[in-house]
Specification:
By secondary structure, the chain is an alpha+beta fold. It has a single domain, classed as Conserved Hypothetical Protein Mth637, Chain: A (2-Layer Sandwich), CATH 3.30.1200. 24% of the residues lie in helices and 33% in strands. The chain contains two helices and five strands. A five-stranded mixed beta sheet has the order 2-3-1-5-4.
């Protein structure tokens, strides 16, 4: 089983977090900068942790230099991916004071 997962990434954030679904894409933030693939590696680790799979089961397929990415998740089908990410805690971003 393999599932393709569309992900919208915000690099350089305050912390790594899964924000939730917006239409058919999962929104995530990572603290790593978009330099030398660091943000892509951080997203891979974050997705693996949220899905409860090894990082080697999550592979970037398309969008290495873009915010919109496509990941392949091995050993999970679409229902399992949605269930695991829907059940994952989604922290509410802290508001900035002006």
């Amino acid at each position: 089983m393999m599932e393709l997962l569309r992900v919208r990434v915000q690099p350089g954030a305050a912390r790594d977090e899964v924000l939730g679904w917006k239409e058919d894409a999962l929104r995530v933030r990572v603290a790593a900068p978009p330099h030398e693939g660091r943000a892509n590696q951080a997203v891979t680790r974050l997705l693996a942790a949220a899905l409860g799979v090894a990082p080697s089961a999550v592979e970037l397929v398309r969008g290495a230099a873009a915010r919109d990415k496509l990941f392949r998740v091995r050993s999970l089908d679409a229902a399992a991916v949605r269930a695991r990410l829907g059940a994952a805690p989604l922290p509410v971003p802290a508001r900035r004071r002006r």
